[in-house]
């Protein structure tokens, strides 16, 4: 029995003292060493701790892929060079390490050979990827040349790292989906500064406008933290007005939670937002965002969407499910044998978290 990941990296061998039956503690960068660690435990009857950052082959792990699934993730980056004041990632995963382009494309080709039709590139700030003179836009273009790959997505992007080179690639490569997950975290410049996010509200809005100006029918989702230390009622209201200005397709929203070892966790006293106030703000934000999402889904009624069929719906065995290019969940009646195919679906109903439609033959 082991513990792996960021918590394991943060607390290290102290976890062995707290949990008597724990066999190993494994940091995020040590995942490739798991087989070796298990062997050592079995042969030498030791309790192992591996939290070193000095791992040569960070990406030397055969990716798990369940047979029959048509979507898959490909890791292109580990660690992070940003220093957001609330985030533990740079301290437990280390500085940004980017994977060579040829390795990423080889893994992508292998997955496509197993029946995958949609790849999502993942990294902490995925669009800051660079290696050997290549930038993220170059990676997107290279992926577009992979035979039989029908869709390309990526997450999570950082606003300051969106470049013209990247936008041009998104516009030029037809497999790249017109959607981005772009965390804003707050609509207040005051809070963004305290979070050390390195951009302003105005910068973020301008970036969104550039994407929408260049890419047709473009969709944006985001992350938002409420109740960050020092956030005033006025700061929160600025976040609410940003919701109205951008009209996000969806938003993952949370109450600020301090992470030990981060600068923000050192803030105490009157600067901290009361839990009841933070909860009220979160409810207000989520209620409005829920309305915006429903309105957006409802506005798709009558539109013919291209949907990648992922398989049978979990909620209704008479339906299959998939996603539109803008990442909306779509359910409709169709034979399951269409899994892995791009099909045309006319939207007949917009729901709170999905859309329904009819297969266009």
Features of the shown structure:
18 strands, five-stranded mixed β-barrel, 11 helices, 361 residues, Transcription Regulator spoIIAA, three-stranded parallel beta sheet
Protein architecture, described:
With 361 residues, the chain is of the alpha/beta class. It has 4 domains: 2-50, no CATH class; 58-177, 2-Layer Sandwich (Transcription Regulator spoIIAA); 209-299, Transcription Regulator spoIIAA (2-Layer Sandwich), CATH 3.30.750.200; 304-359, OB fold (Dihydrolipoamide Acetyltransferase, E2P). 32% of the residues lie in helices and 23% in strands. The strands form 6 sheets. Strands 14-15-16-18-17 form a 5-stranded mixed β-barrel. A 3-stranded parallel sheet has the order 1-2-3. Strands 4-7-10 form a 3-stranded parallel sheet, covered by helices on one side. Strand 8 and strand 9 (134-135) form a beta hairpin. The longest helix is centred in the last third of the chain and has 24 residues, at 275-298.
